[in-house]
Design a protein that fits this description.
8-stranded antiparallel barrel, mainly beta, 15% helix, 8 strands, Lipocalin, 154 residues
């Protein structure tokens, strides 16, 4: 990860904390449904119609050494949740897969950037690492996290 991307991630964290919302969503529930089924969520057909591969489903971790880490859970029903330091809700939403493309849409946000528009990425599992490359992403904060190289946990 480049210094620029690390600086952007840290800036997002600092700005959201300075707005007084850093404590939002810090419950202990680690399910992938936090806000993912909110009434305002748009239809899932925009996210893709392909089956979600079992190899993609699971829990992932990304870390900025000495600073912070994120946990992301992707469930088989197309819901995701990302938590800062494993506790605070960063973002949650829905995702869909069509072959090598994955589309994500936030439906709730805690300390992270909220973006209802769809972000599209190419994805691949390289060993135990989820690698995502941007195809189309309107939200730079969300792009920074999804493209950080997530390690799949056992």
């Amino acid at each position: 990860m480049t210094r620029t991307r690390i600086a952007r991630l840290l800036l997002v964290i600092l700005l959201t904390a300075s707005l007084g919302i850093a404590g939002c969503g810090d419950d202990d529930d680690d399910s992938a449904s936090d806000g993912a089924d909110s009434p305002g969520a748009a239809a899932d057909e925009d996210l893709g119609e392909g089956a979600i591969p079992a190899s993609l489903v699971g829990t992932y971790r990304f870390e900025i050494p000495g600073d912070a880490f994120w946990i992301a859970r992707l469930d088989p029903e197309g819901r995701f949740v990302q938590r800062l330091n494993g506790r605070q809700l960063d973002a949650s939403g829905r995702y869909g897969v069509d072959g090598e493309e994955i589309r994500v849409r936030d439906t709730a946000s805690g300390v992270g950037t909220f973006c209802q528009e769809i972000g599209t990425y190419q994805w691949a599992l390289q060993g135990n690492r989820l690698v995502m490359r941007v195809v189309d992403e309107p939200c730079s904060g969300r792009e920074d996290l999804w493209t950080s190289g997530w390690e799949k946990l056992p």
